[in-house]
Write a structure and sequence with these properties.
The complex is a heterodimer of chains A (689) and B (80). Chain A has 689 residues and is an alpha/beta fold. Helix content of chain A is 38%, strand content 15%. In chain A, the strands form 5 sheets. Chain A has a 7-stranded mixed sheet, sandwiched between helices. A 6-stranded mixed sheet of chain A has the order 16-18-17-20-21-22, with helices on both faces. In chain A, helix 1 (6-32) packs across helix 11 (278-301). Chain A is elongated and about 95 Å long. Chain B contains no helices and 8 strands. Classes of the chains: A alpha/beta (689), B mainly beta (80). Chain A binds chain B through residues 24, 27-28, 30-33, 246-249, 251, and chain B through 5-6, 8-12, 33-34, 42, 44-50, 52, 70-71.
């Protein structure tokens, strides 16, 4: 425990004053019209941030929210880097890319704020999971408000921290209002700490305006976490003396309530408690004011980013770093990329090739682990399509079986990735990705950019797609919802060789990569083989190999018409091309699109059929069509896709829904039959569905 | 020296003009930074607006009842 001498106490006081004065200074800059954007301030809540952070070690971490200025200052970010960020300067903690709601500094143990309410909670659980797997003694303090406990992400995040005994101090700053809505309107039991017991861990309610009580409670909670008794939930009772945002006059806060809490102001109370002298008070306030005036002047003049750098930091640069020291116990199996000793190439299906690829990377890189439902259960299935069958016997705790909580465990995977692990997270059916989409799209895809490139998310995700007789909620082709998301790479292997090579490339890329697999292409033998499966097996070499993430592949050469397809449709396109002089391209990289390979082909043939399993409206084929039309306007374009209906169950309708070989061939023939005249501009682009 | 106080960006919906509901301080009155010196009517509510400097309220450029765009100079303060 830190010694609490006068210097320490004065330091706590000064840290609270710094937060108050920083927030008030920013308030006036906003009133003067010199500061862009909006701000969500924390005047009145200084003791929560300072008390919690003072109890943490320098190498502990915090996660924060859109109301994060106090947390950032308390954790040790400088007033200068924060003011620079608020002014949108290049020298800001997030290089001006994040702004007020995403304050953070990875070098100082603060993840950029997550502005989606409760979005940081599963993230913190994931960070703690990484610490446990890395055998570190760090803890993460996860800040959120009373409003967050209504979100599903709270439930899923704390539940997983509980079942795995993770070192998270969940810090709920209960200031009685979620935005403008009083807590009694949104929960029946408004003693938030009571909830911890229902998850099987310890919760405590603390006077959040008493900095020493907050400090004591956090010291106890972090000791519990470090000694394997985590997580802990601390409910800190406090009050916001400023608006929800700067455009909020707080008329929903009754005057009496405001006055009552003003009398419990954390800074004044502490000044009284430690008998602050007027000399000490003057000295500290003058020092803080001086600092802030200098900080503001410098921030106003700090250079802004160049427009030419707008697209920087979308992705982390690919690294070929070896795993960090102490990243985890290396497996006993050989450390090189090659696991199978001199074997000839074997023919494997996609499920088998993925299983082999996962085993090889897990053996070579202790940072890699798998997280998903039913993936490691002994006597279980190895996931919904047998991909992880048997791996738990070799890799034990590195196959993590989760509760049914996709939003939660994808968030956990994001957090673990941010702390240096290399997770592979999967959903059993692609349709379930919708549940996880906040963590994938709002967190994983944006974190590198909004942190100014200082944080990265080396997360691989896998999802099976396609219609297989299970009804509309287990049948969607999900590619269209996740392509064109800046910061997210998307690939789709149509065969076993590509599946293994793309998986390995994805794990080395250091960015969020979503791998779509098709349920009918797994080609697994045994208990879970799908009826009507197409042969997607390949010869798999024994040497290590990669397949580049951003390239399409020409599967069949031809000269009269190009057929673009991915996943199952590649196989149907190959069949359709049998009696046509067609060039079949496996699009394979869905984000980004490989315009070079596609362009070379369509410029040669002048005609393209784009095949997509999924509704014709708003699919990826539309994006590809538009991209071809604007680059090579003379090319005739036709799409073959499903009608705009949810996937029907009854086999006769499901088969009509799914594009088939006949429809693809007919579209190609129709294009070939048309005159390839230079005046094609007057003809409408045909579609077939 | 004099500084200008501008209509702050308090509107919920961009482009909305903001109205001066009433002036709490009068011309010639000493004012302090943080002191509420006028009430502004936004699209959400009537909100108090604090003075941005210590000094004397030198001039009022927009009267109660008038509506102006964000950034319009509404007052001048002679700074201490």
């Amino acid at each position: 425990m830190t010694s609490r001498d006068r210097a320490f106490l004065l330091n706590l006081y000064e840290r609270m004053v710094l937060i108050r004065e920083f927030e008030d200074t920013v308030k006036f800059l906003f009133l003067e019209g010199t500061m862009p954007g909006t701000i969500h301030q924390c005047q009145g809540q200084e003791a929560t941030a300072v008390g919690v952070c003072a109890a943490l070690r320098a190498d502990d971490w915090i996660t924060s929210t859109f109301r994060g200025h106090g947390h950032a200052l308390a954790k040790g970010l400088s007033a200068q880097e924060m003011m620079d960020e608020l002014f949108g300067a290049e020298s800001g903690c997030c290089k001006g890319r994040g702004g007020s709601m995403h304050m953070g500094n990875m070098a100082k143990g603060m993840v950029p704020g997550i502005a989606i309410v409760a979005g940081g909670i599963p993230l913190a659980t994931g960070m703690a999971l990484a610490f446990k797997m890395q055998q570190k003694t760090e803890v993460v303090a996860c800040f959120f408000g009373d409003g967050a406990v209504a979100e599903g992400a709270f439930h899923e995040g704390v539940n997983m921290a509980a079942i795995w005994g993770l070192p998270v101090v969940f810090v709920c700053e209960n200031n009685l209002y979620g935005a403008s809505t009083h807590i009694d309107l949104v929960m029946k039991n408004s003693r938030i700490s009571d909830r911890a017991a229902s998850y099987g861990f310890r919760g405590e309610t603390v006077d959040g305006n008493d900095v020493l009580k907050v400090l004591d409670a956090t010291e106890r909670a972090s000791a519990d976490c470090r000694e394997g008794r985590g997580p802990v939930l601390l409910e800190l009772l406090t009050y916001r003396r400023t608006g929800h945002s700067r455009r909020d006059p707080c008329h929903y806060q009754p005057k009496q309530e405001r006055e009552l809490w003003a009398q419990r102001d954390p800074i004044e109370r502490f000044a009284e408690e430690i008998k602050l002298s007027s000399d000490e008070r003057e000295l500290i306030h003058a020092r803080v004011q001086d600092l802030l005036s200098q900080v503001v002047e410098r921030a106003k003049l700090a250079p802004r980013p160049k427009v030419s750098e707008l697209a920087d930091f979308v992705f982390a640069a690919a690294s070929s770093q070896p795993p960090p020291a102490g990243a985890g116990k290396p497996d006993e199996v050989a450390n090189s990329g090659t696991v199978s000793p001199a074997k000839p190439a074997r023919r494997l299906g996609i499920a088998e090739a993925l299983r082999e690829g996962i085993a090889e990377v897990m053996a070579a890189d202790p940072r890699v682990f798998c997280i998903g439902e039913d993936i490691g259960v002994r006597g279980g299935w190895g996931g919904a399509f047998t991909v992880t069958l048997g791996l738990a016997e070799k890799f034990g705790g590195r196959l993590i079986d989760t509760p049914i909580a996709e939003l939660g465990f994808f968030g956990v995977a994001v957090g673990a990735a941010m702390m240096g692990m290399r997770p592979i997270a999967d959903v059993q059916y692609g349709d379930f990705l919708f549940l996880a989409s906040d963590q994938i799209i709002n967190n994983a895809a944006k974190m590198c950019y909004m942190s100014g490139g200082t944080a990265s998310v080396p997360l691989v995700m896998r999802a099976p797609v396609g219609a297989t007789g299970r009804g509309s909620q287990h049948a969607q082709n999900m590619e269209r919802y996740f392509t064109g998301v800046p910061g997210l790479k998307v690939v789709a292997p149509s065969n076993a060789y590509d599946a293994k090579g793309l998986l390995k490339a994805a794990l080395r890329d250091g960015n969020p990569v979503l791998i779509f697999e098709h349920k009918l292409l797994y080609g697994s033998k045994g208990a879970r083989a799908e009826p009507g499966a197409v042969d997607a097996t390949s010869e798999i070499p024994s040497e290590d190999y990669l397949v580049p993430l951003d390239k399409a592949a020409v599967r069949r050469e031809g000269s009269k018409v190009t057929i673009l397809a991915w996943l199952l449709m590649v196989h149907y396109a190959m069949q359709a091309a049998e009696h046509i002089d067609a060039e079949v391209i496996d699009v394979r990289s869905l984000s980004p699109i490989d315009w070079e390979t596609i362009g070379t082909s369509v410029q040669k043939t002048g005609r393209v059929v784009i095949v997509e399993e999924g509704p014709i409206t708003g699919g990826l084929s539309a994006e590809i069509g538009a991209g071809i039309a604007e680059r090579w306007p003379a090319v005739r374009i036709r799409r073959v896709a499903s009608p705009d209906v949810p996937v029907p169950f009854t086999p006769v309708l499901e088969n009509a829904y799914r594009p088939d070989v006949q429809r693809i061939a007919a579209a190609a023939q129709a294009l070939l039959a048309q005159e390839h005249a230079a005046t094609c501009a007057t003809e409408a682009v045909g579609v077939d569905s | 020296m004099n500084i200008n106080m501008k209509m702050p960006d308090l509107a919920t919906n961009a482009g909305t003009e903001l109205g001066i509901a009433r002036w709490i301080a009068q011309v010639g009155q000493p004012v302090k930074r943080g002191q509420a010196i006028l009430e502004v009517e936004t699209d959400k509510a009537v909100q108090e607006v604090e003075c941005i400097a210590n000094g004397v309220l030198q001039a009022i450029h927009v009267q109660a009842g008038e509506k102006v765009a964000v950034g319009t100079v509404i007052a001048t303060i002679k700074v201490d």
